[in-house]
Amino acid sequence: MTAPMVGFILNLMVKCDDDVLDQVFAALSDPTRRQVLEALGEGSQSVSTLAQSHGMSLPGFMKHLRVLESAGLIARLKEGRVVRCTLAAEPMQEAAMWLSRYEKFWGERLDALGRYLYHQQELKKTWHPTPPAAGLNGQPSSSSVSTTPPRKLSSRPGPTRKR
Questions:
Q1: Angle, helix 31-40 to helix 3-28, in steps of 10 degrees
Q2: What's the confidence (pLDDT) of residue 105?
Q3: Closest C-alpha among 96, 85, 117, 123 to residue 20
Q4: Residue by residue, what is the 3-state secondary structure of 54-112?
Q5: CA 136 to mean position of chain CA atoms
Q6: Is it the case that residue 14 has pLDDT exceeding 60?
Q7: CA 144 to chain centre
Q8: Coil, helix or strand for 140?
Q9: Distances (CA, A) of 144 to 1, 71, 130, 147
Q10: Fewer CB within 10 Å, N- or C-terminus of the chain?
Q11: Those residues with Cβ within 8 angstroms of residue 132's Cβ, 6 or more apart along the chain or in another chain
Q12: DSSP run (H or E) holding 47
C-alpha cells in the first residue's frame, strides 16, 4: 500500500471515530436518554416498561430509542410481540477513552490552581493590612473610596401658585 493510501485510510478512520463520538455525545446530552441507559444498565427491558417511567407518548419515546440505537448505545431485539432493549456499552467506552485524554491535562491545571491558592493563603497570613477608617456611623467603611456628605439645600421651596 502506498503512503498516500495509508494516510487516506487513517484519515477516514479518524473521521469515522469522530462521527461515532458525535453521535454518542449527542445521544448522552438528553436526560431522558441517560435515564434509559441507566435503567438498561440493570438488564434488558421491554420498550413498554422503559416508556412507562417517562410519562410521554410511545411515539415520542421511540424517537429517543432511535437516537440511542443510531449511536450504537442500545440494541433492540424482537421476541414475538415484545421488543426488548439491551445496553451496548462499547461506544460509551470509546467516549470514556476520549475523555481520559483530557484527564491528565485538567488534573495538572487543577493541581496548579491548588498550589496558587495555597500560596495566596500563605501570603495573607504574613501580610497585615492597616484597619480601615471609621465611616459616618462609626462603623468601618466597606469602601476604600472617601466620600463627602451631601450638601444641604438652602431653604424650603416657596409657595405654589393656585389657579
A1: 100
A2: 84
A3: 96
A4: CCCCHHHHHHHHHHHHHCCCEEEEEECCEEEEEECCHHHHHHHHHHHHHHHHHHHHHHH
A5: 47
A6: no
A7: 38
A8: strand
A9: 73, 58, 12, 10
A10: C
A11: 140, 141, 144
A12: helix 47-52
Task: Tell me the C-alpha distance between 104 and 102, whole Å.
Answer: 5
Element (H, E) at 50: helix 47-52
Other Cβ atoms closer than 10 A to 37: 19
Burial, 41: exposed, middle or buried (Cβ in 10 Å; 0-12, 13-18, 19+)?
exposed
Which fold is adopted by the domain 11-89? Arc Repressor Mutant, subunit A (1.10.10)
Q: Cell 440511542 sits at which residue? A: 68
Helix (H) or strand (E) holding 46, with range, is: strand 45-46
Neighbours of 98 (CB within 10 A): 15
Say what the pLDDT of residue 12 is.
37
Among the ranges given (47-51, 56-60, 146-150), the one the predictor scored with the smallest mean pLDDT: 146-150
CB 36 within 8 A of CB 74: yes
- 80 C-beta neighbours (distance < 10 Å), count: 5
Nearest to 73 by CA among 131, 121, 30: 30
The span from the CA of 58 to the CA of 67, in Å, is 14
